[in-house]
């Protein structure tokens, strides 16, 4: 059961924004309040979903950051999604209850709410149209994440790309206190750690990044 009505109202507003023309069932709000879970805080980064397994839960980020890693042909791990506060983390493999090629980590002091696949099945059973709505929610958020990163990588000038990254993802400065390591940020921005650090320092010297 949840415990914060203000954050819950923010979460419900996010759900309702998916398709404003389709009202959500009146009973759904009470069901989610009673059946979603407040996940325990971690004092360090920890993995919440493993690759090559079926995801157990979908998540709502109350605060902090959630990272999704994939694997290339050489089985090297790379960061390709960053979720901020007020984001829904529901990968396609969770929605379809299929084996995941991804692993999901939460950063230190990140607060999550979650819902299990069993509870989602109950939602589908009890309310017509909710399965299609859930898939639409997942699809919309996943597409937005893909587009967001693609727009960053489309910025050719690396200094401008790094500046835009820090404008979008607040709370990652100063670097020594960032919950996301420079190696991961560099991977996300398709650059190297040394180039990231050099350009970030230049941006600070120009007064464009303040920390």
Poorly predicted ranges: none
What order do the helices and strands follow? HHEEEEEEHEEHHHHH
Strand content range: 15-25%
Helix content: 40-55%
Mean pLDDT: 94
Structural class by secondary-structure content: alpha+beta
Rg, rounded, reads 18 Å
Number of helices: 8
Strand order of the largest sheet: 1-8-3-6
User: What is the number of beta strands?
Assistant: 8
Largest sheet: 4 strands, antiparallel
Q: Name the overall outline.
A: globular
**Cα end-to-end separation:** 38 Å
Short synopsis of the structure:
The chain has 211 residues and is an alpha+beta fold.
Task: Report on this structure.
This protein has helices spanning 5-18, 28-35, 92-96, 117-126, 130-153, 158-168, 182-188, 193-205; strands at residues 37-38, 46-49, 57-63, 66-71, 77-83, 87-89, 103-106, 111-116. By secondary structure, it is an alpha+beta fold. Strands 1-8-3-6 form a 4-stranded antiparallel beta sheet. Strands 2-7-4-5 form a 4-stranded antiparallel beta sheet. Strand 4 and strand 5 form a beta hairpin. The longest helix is centred in the last third of the chain and has 24 residues, at 130-153. It is globular and about 55 Å long. It starts with a helix and ends in a 6-residue tail after the last helix.
């Amino acid at each position: 059961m949840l415990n914060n009505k203000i954050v819950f109202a923010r979460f419900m507003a996010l759900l309702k924004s998916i398709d404003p023309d389709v009202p959500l069932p009146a009973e759904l709000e009470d069901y989610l309040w009673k059946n979603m879970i407040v996940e325990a805080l971690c004092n360090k980064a920890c993995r919440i979903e493993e690759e090559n397994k079926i995801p157990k839960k979908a998540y709502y980020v109350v605060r902090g950051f959630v990272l999704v890693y994939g694997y290339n042909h050489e089985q090297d791990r790379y960061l390709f999604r960053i979720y901020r506060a007020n984001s829904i983390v529901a990968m396609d493999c969770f929605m379809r209850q299929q084996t995941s090629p991804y692993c999901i980590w939460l950063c230190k002091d990140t607060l999550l709410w979650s819902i299990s696949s069993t509870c989602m099945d109950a939602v589908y059973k009890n309310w017509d149209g909710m399965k299609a709505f859930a898939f639409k929610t997942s699809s919309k958020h996943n597409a937005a994440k893909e587009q967001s990163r693609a727009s960053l990588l489309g910025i050719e000038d690396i200094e401008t790309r790094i500046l835009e990254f820090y404008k979008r993802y607040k709370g990652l400065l100063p670097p020594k206190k960032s919950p996301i390591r420079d190696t991961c940020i560099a991977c996300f921005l398709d650059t190297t750690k040394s180039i990231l650090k050099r350009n970030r320092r230049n941006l600070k010297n120009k007064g464009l990044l303040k920390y």
